[in-house]
Write a structure and sequence with these properties.
278 residues, Arc Repressor Mutant, subunit A, alpha+beta, 9 strands, nine-stranded antiparallel sheet
Length: 278
């Protein structure tokens, strides 16, 4: 079995064994042999939901099973599965199951299950994925920064781009790059950036970041196929790559000039930092 897949399964097993404990994503990622920053992206691509969503859903499923099968107090179950108050537990429980915790104790109550994950490799069509390995010298970008949480970044980053383009920001930075840089595993800085020109002054509200020299796996696509390519990069290419492993805690989207006649066909590249497996 591929090492990355084994690592993800180790992490899932660790989560399952500690669902009633206060476990950090950092500790979970250690079981997968990757950084917290990259683990959350790999996990979301493979599983279709975030680490936090998986833990919450598993806890709520187990909580309902206990309420339905045993004579236990709602407050005791709430505390066991990490909720500070009966009210917060009741809101989460009702949203997930469609009934209140008290109703789940009644005979014949309908509750929802959320089974534990098991990661396997499924052989699908022999479709090819275009990519290239590029060695790049260190380079510096200049851009507009905002910090995001992994849990909400997919919804919030497009709003950041809309804001940047809508308030005239594209006159300062046209948006050649979308750069993600890890902060603490769960939060990261995102820069809408261009190449830094050292002879030009950095405007107020903008900043520079330097990316170190190293190897990158580069995946070409279009704006229309960006999300699909991103998912396949994490879900198909990385787990099956034997010669390289994940490198630094950052990744880049590189955007070509937009095509007015068909914006969806605009050229895009996804850059993933990698290291040679020794």
């Amino acid at each position: 079995m591929n090492t990355l897949i084994e690592g993800i399964q180790n992490a899932i097993t660790y989560m399952e064994e500690n669902l009633t404990e206060d476990v950090s994503v950092k500790k979970i990622a250690e079981k997968a042999y990757v950084s917290e920053f990259h683990f959350q992206r790999v996990f979301s691509a493979l599983c279709g939901f975030s680490v936090g969503e998986y833990i919450r859903n598993r806890r709520l499923a187990l909580a309902a099973q206990e309420l339905a099968a045993r004579d236990v107090k709602v407050i005791d179950v709430a505390v066991k599965y990490g909720y500070d108050s009966p009210d917060s537990f009741a809101r989460a429980f009702t949203k997930f199951h469609g009934i209140t915790p008290s109703a789940a104790k009644e005979k014949g109550a309908k509750i929802r299950d959320f089974a534990p994950l098991r990661i396997t490799i499924c052989l699908e069509g022999g479709t090819m994925m275009e990519y290239k390995i590029v060695e790049k010298a260190a380079f510096t970008v200049m851009g507009r920064k905002r910090s995001f949480n992994v849990e909400t970044s997919y919804q919030e980053i497009p709003k950041f781009w809309e804001e940047h383009m809508g308030d005239g920001g594209q006159k300062v930075v046209c948006g050649m790059y979308g750069l993600c840089i890890d902060l603490d595993g769960s939060d990261f800085d995102y820069l809408i950036a261009d190449n830094y020109l050292p002879w030009e002054e950095v405007p107020a509200g903008y900043e520079t970041r330097t990316l170190p020299a190293g190897a990158w796996a580069v995946f070409p696509c279009t704006l229309r196929t960006l999300q699909d390519t991103n998912t396949r990069m994490w879900k198909e290419w990385l787990p099956n790559c034997k010669e390289y492993k994940l490198g630094g805690n950052y990744n880049i989207e590189m955007y070509g000039p937009p095509l007015a006649e068909d914006p969806g066909s605009s050229y895009v590249e996804l850059w993933l930092p990698i290291e040679k497996v020794k």
